[in-house]
Amino acid sequence: MADGTILFAVRENSGDGGTGAEQLRRIHKELEAAGYEVRWASTSDGARAVLRTEAGLAAAVVDWGLPGADGKDAKEGGKQAGAEDGKEDGAEDGEPGGSGVLRQVGRRFQNLPVFLITAGEDLDHLPLWVAETVVGYIWPLEDTAPFIAGRIARAARGYQEDLLPPFFKALREFDDTHEYSWHTPAHSGGVAFLKSPVGRAFYDHFGERLLRSDLSISVGELGSLFEHTGPVGAAERNAARIFGADRTYFVLHGDSTCDRMVGHFSVTRDEIALVDRNCHKSVLHGLVLSGARPVYLVPTRNGYGLAGPLPPAEIQAQSVASRIARNPLTPGAVSPDAQYAVLTNSTYDGLCYDALQVARALAPSTPRLHFDEAWFAYARFHPLYAGRYGMAVGPGTFPEPERPTVFSTQSTHKLLAALSQSAMVHVKPAPRAPVEHERFNEAFMMHGTTSPLYPMIASLDVAAAMMDGPQGRWLIDEAVAEAVRFRQTVVRIGRRIAAAGDRPGWFFGVWQPETVTDPATGEQVPFADAPAELLRTEPSCWQLEPGADWHGFPGLTEGYCLLDPVKVTLTCPGIDASGRMSDWGIPARVLTAYLATRNIVVEKTDSYTTLILFSMGITKGKWGTLMDALMDFKTLYDEDAPLERVLPELVEAHPQRYTGGTLRGLCQEMHDHLRETDLVELLDTAFQDLPEPVTPPQHCYQRLIRGGTERVRLAEAAGRVAAAMVTVTPPGIPVLMPGENTGTQDGPLLHYLKALESFDRRFPGFHSEAHGVTLDPDGGDYLIECVRRIPAQQTGPEAASAQVTDA
Predict the structure, then answer these.
(1) With 0-12 CB in 10 A as exposed, 13-18 as middle and 19+ as buried, what is 467?
(2) Which residue, of 197, 255, 444, 474, has the fewest CB within 10 Å?
(3) Residue 81 pLDDT
């Protein structure tokens, strides 16, 4: 491994006439001669700044008497302190500056070698916890500079050698052997690309190291992804330890493949699966593969159109049994008992469950519980999310025999640091539904590849290692802290605008509690005025209190659901969480179209909300740029700026529709249309009043591939059976599943889809992203895939099976 950086957090003048300082400079030069870069900080504040920003440290030398920012020496004494003082940075009151540096090392790094410089003849004056933090002590004048530098360099090398996780370490070592490749892939470490001009451009762009790491499964030294042996197996076992699983599997085709894999393993043909309607389409794909019969559980919704959690009453045994009994697919099922349940945690808008409450509620109804945590892989590593992730459910928290086997599927690349498509399946089996590795591995191999990209495996290995120990909390804590700062800033700016009186008093809002309560004092304070430390560390500040107006979800219980602070939903004027619409408004689609012109791409846009993610890669500069864009949009709106200036590409693409228009005029026209068509209310009705199931999804898929389906316009779709899933973004949740009846022309589903169709016609350039819907190239009508020739009197699985044969 290349030599790294060593921090010298040392006073400029140690008070010994400069002799000690001169010796430290000699040590500094010796380390530079050995290939290390030395970062020198002469104050505790400077040292902590280096620790915050320099992840490549290999060792640190810390002066216990380091002064603070004012340059004054701290007292040598100081009280004994614990390892965690509740402060974000800094020493305990009365302690030297070096104490705060040591504390931050413990929060930021795991096992970083630290050498302490102390002026005392003995170590009695040091707090006891210091001995647990440092690896050695330095009295600069008692040994030679080369000897001391050698001790530091040796410790740094040992740290660097132990830093790499199993697979990444083995991959680097294999890369260093410079072996000739006689196996696939055919580019042979990139050599083939060098023989073509366009190939050479590709080679130069990505570099030799990546291409040399693209290897075949024939390389035995790196182990087997299918056999889970060697460095691959070691990496999966290491990840299981870090994520709290009994077994972890690395998956190279994203969380979508994880979902299909778990569903395919957990439920078989004609068995019942309980499915959160707020699910990803890959969950349905798993049911198509397995031939299961889905019984859907319906989440709450609020006035913004945001999907909430499954209500606590919805997942109780009596309610689940009633849903199963009423479902038309149940009579043809193997058993009336569900074999598998899957729900989304956290939701797309950042709502996460108390996982133990959910497991206890669903345990009487199913032996297998799957938390789709595609956007929640970081939950185990911050106390805000304690108990709110699948792997928190285990023998220690749910010791009774009724405990279900729990699966967590995580899209590691989404909000942890891994390459795209990198994902993991975590398993915590229970005796009532054992998961024998060899059997699960059959499902794993069905959905895996015999040509894995080794850099992707390495990225999973590294992503897990980054979360190991204190560094994991530090990384997530930084994202939470920046999200809190942004949230408070938006509210504070809104208050300043309203108080100034020199411009229209509106601004964007943030979907979050208006007030929070400090549990230590019982004091209730406005969210924007709450201490950042409280919001960063206290889960009760983010819980959805039953009946609270700000979230708008009915039927919740205390502590059941929590809003994830790193998923920030901006709200636009025009509607509130109860669904009350005002006379004027700013639809979010217009805002996000403007943000795109500023190279700001948001995660999701609904009618009056837009979602942005505060991942580990967030910086103050990044969200500061967003704040500037929001302020600029307000100015442009207040000025009623012409669309040619605000959205020039929109006007260029649709000149007849938008030439001569203004930003305020477009916003008001769109708001009026949304209000007149009741689109937000129609969305809520469509998601609450589910279509009637007619046949299992697998039957529809068989019709689809054998030509037994047809595309029909919405005006002709009444009473038809859908052959493909229809998912509309916003909000990104399926409104129609294969095998479900579309209902009547004026029923909730077709009424909602026709309203969307009308919106797309009226506002070209702002069309809804609808999967499972195609557009008629002549008139732009919505077309949906339906099963052919279903007589009105035929319903149920038996009829559907006959129709499959008929096809």
Answers:
(1) buried
(2) 197
(3) 33
Alpha-carbon torsion (104, 111, 428, 613), positive or negative:
positive
**Residue 332, phi then psi, degrees to nearest 5:** -95, 5
CA-closest candidate to residue 431, choices 302, 260, 616, 246: 246
Answer for the pair 554, 309: CB distance below 8 angstroms, yes or no. no
Q: 691, 731 in Cβ contact below 8 A?
A: no
**Averaged pLDDT, 298-322:** 94
Give the Cα separation of 756 and 682 in Å (integer): 10
Q: Which two tokens stand for residue 90?
A: 């800094």
Per the model's pLDDT, the better-predicted residue between 407 and 798 turns out to be 407
Give residue 13's pLDDT. 61
**Could you tell me if 719 and 691 are in contact, meaning their C-beta atoms sit under 8 angstroms apart?**
no
Cis peptide before 346 (omega within 30 of 0): yes
So what's the pLDDT on residue 1? Answer: 43
Question: Which helix (H) or strand (E) covers residue 423, if one does?
Answer: strand 423-428
CB 47 within 8 Å of CB 62: yes
Helix boundaries (H) for 548-619:
588-597
pLDDT at 500 over 70: yes
Strand partners, 224: 229
User: Could you write out the three-class secondary structure of 266-296?
Assistant: HCCCCCEEEEECCCCHHHHHHHHHHCCEEEE
The Cα–Cα gap between 727 and 722 comes to: 12
Query: Predicted confidence band at 594 (pLDDT cuts at 50, 70, 90)?
Result: very high
Report CA torsion sign: 78, 84, 86, 91.
positive
Q: Give the distance between the most distant pair of CA atoms in the chain.
A: 101
Q: For residue 26, what are the contacts with CB-CB under 8 A and spacing of at least 6?
A: 145
Burial (Cβ within 10 Å: 0-12, 13-18, ≥19) of residue 707:
exposed
Instruction: Please name every residue paired with 604 in a beta bridge, in sequence order, or none if there are none.
Output: 611
Q: What is the DSSP letter of 228?
A: T
Query: Side by side, which strands form the sheet with 733-736?
Result: 733-736, 726-729, 769-771
pLDDT at 72: 54
Q: How confident is the model at residue 772 (pLDDT cuts 50, 70, 90)?
A: confident
* Helical spans, DSSP H, in 689-767: 697-705, 748-762
Confidence band, pLDDT 50/70/90 cuts, at residue 784:
very high
Q: Region 543-561: what's the mean pLDDT?
A: 95
CA 401 to mean position of chain CA atoms: 32
Q: In 527-628, where do the E strands start and end?
A: 561-563, 567-571, 604-605, 609-613
* Eight-state DSSP code of residue 2: -
Question: pLDDT for 174-217, tens place per residue?
Answer: 876 656 667 778 888 888 889 999 999 999 999 988 888 888 77
Mean local confidence (pLDDT), 673-696: 91
- Assess whether pLDDT exceeds 90 at residue 69: no
At residue 311, the pLDDT reads 96
Note whether 219 and 167 are within 8 A (CB). Answer: no
Q: Locate tokens 């019984």: which residue?
A: 295
Q: What is the DSSP letter of 192?
A: G
DSSP β-bridge partners for residue 734:
727
Residues in a beta bridge with 274: 295, 341
Cis peptide before 691 (omega within 30 of 0): no
Among candidates 16, 17, 30, 19, which has minimal Cα distance to 8?
A: 30
Q: Indicate the pLDDT class of residue 658, thresholds 50, 70 and 90.
A: very high
CA distances from 277 to 22, 325, 689, 730 (A): 69, 18, 11, 15
Alpha helices by DSSP H, 689-747: 697-705
pTM value > 0.85: yes
Whole-number Å distance between alpha carbons of 205 and 220: 29
d(CA 113, CA 5): 12
